[in-house]
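FORM 12-B: Structure-to-Sequence Request
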């Protein structure tokens, strides 16, 4: 700086004049909402205060220029529409208007997610994340006409869920789906980090009726569960197992206090609980009229056996090899011909019967026409060799 410049500055100082401030030295915006000169120069300040109420009061950020579809962020007290036709939300909000119209809003401690059909709105709430007074994390998706607590959790890697909040709702009003595409690995891990756990345990399932299933297991493509944990109509807890192609056919259950029961073939062909079955007589064989009538059922033990019991009357024309009944269902037929025995109640002699692989009970020897024969409860037909 030469002497003449120094003298000029001194004169200005003596007159109270100052050099023009740079844009980054301005403390207040120009009057009338004008832009601060030097739009390409960053505005640097220790504190920025925005005051005012009503539409378009707040901070609005555009890119690349101000205009419709260029609003990318706002900080406002409430919602409205800017002078360029961009609908905005209250609170601190970021907008995506590139391929789809989406917004993420932070307001009142809740992070909300919206979508819209255009920059003009309206913005539609899709989901939100918040916390509650119990320090739980609340994830909510908007269902059809109602709020559902969790629409879907999915991941392409292992998923560890440790949420203190209850998870209700789901893809439908009663389904929560957790899935991933891992070839192998854990889908869900629940860990208790304290040694004080007790009743009700780490995982509790509560159903409304005793016959509701607590747990089922399917393999992809199955039409029926391969394993089902439930209770029977008497309230006895049981585990049932099947092929996946039909109703479960085996099971283990609580038979009584301090006693397990195992039912190797627990269900008949219709999928209902096994009961006593009445055969259809052939060749004029009949029940004697003295209980019990001839009947049969599958039993839990010995393995894979059918029990026969009843009192019957031999017809006129009784003969060796004569069918006593018509064929029973395939599930009750042995793999090899089996022998059954009875007592002729007239003579006290032993009466022998056979059960063929075709499911026909046949008389062989030991009785006569009109005699009553007691086939006692100890008669078991093994279904497998």
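FORM 12-B RESPONSE
SEQUENCE OUT:
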């Amino acid at each position: 700086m030469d002497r003449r410049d120094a003298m000029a500055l001194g004169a200005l100082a003596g007159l109270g004049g100052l050099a023009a401030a740079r844009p980054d030295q301005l403390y207040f915006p120009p009057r009338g909402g004008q832009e601060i000169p030097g739009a390409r120069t960053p505005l640097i300040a220790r504190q920025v205060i925005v005051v005012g109420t009503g539409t378009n009061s707040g901070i609005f950020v555009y890119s690349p220029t101000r205009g419709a579809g260029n609003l990318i962020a706002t900080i406002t007290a409430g919602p409205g529409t800017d002078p360029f036709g961009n609908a905005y939300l209250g609170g601190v909000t970021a907008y995506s208007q590139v391929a789809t119209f989406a917004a993420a809003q932070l307001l009142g401690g809740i992070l909300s997610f919206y979508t819209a059909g255009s920059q003009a709105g309206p913005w539609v709430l899709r989901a939100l994340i918040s916390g509650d007074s119990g320090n739980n994390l609340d994830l909510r998706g908007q269902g059809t006409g109602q709020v559902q607590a969790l629409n879907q959790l999915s991941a392409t890697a292992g998923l560890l869920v440790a949420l203190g909040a209850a998870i209700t709702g789901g893809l439908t009003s009663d389904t929560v789906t957790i899935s991933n595409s891992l070839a192998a690995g854990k889908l869900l891990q629940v860990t208790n980090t304290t040694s004080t756990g007790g009743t009700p345990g780490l995982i509790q399932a509560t159903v409304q009726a005793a016959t509701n299933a607590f747990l089922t297991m399917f393999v992809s493509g199955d039409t029926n569960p391969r394993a089902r944990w439930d209770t029977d109509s008497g309230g006895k807890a049981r585990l049932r197992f099947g092929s996946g192609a039909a109703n479960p056919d085996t099971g283990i259950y609580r038979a009584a206090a301090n006693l397990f029961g195992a039912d190797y073939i627990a269900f008949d062909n219709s999928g209902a609980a096994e009961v006593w079955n009445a055969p259809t007589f052939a060749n004029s064989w009949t029940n004697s009229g003295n209980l019990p009538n001839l009947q049969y059922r599958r039993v839990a033990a010995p393995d894979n056996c059918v029990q026969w019991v009843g009192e019957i009357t031999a017809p006129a024309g009784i003969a060796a090899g004569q069918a006593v009944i018509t064929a029973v269902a395939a599930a009750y037929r042995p793999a090899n011909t089996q022998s059954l025995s009875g007592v002729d109640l007239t003579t006290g002699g032993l009466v022998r019967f056979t059960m063929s692989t075709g499911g026909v009970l046949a008389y062989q020897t030991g009785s006569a026409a009109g005699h009553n024969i007691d086939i006692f409860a100890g008669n078991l037909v093994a279904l497998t060799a």
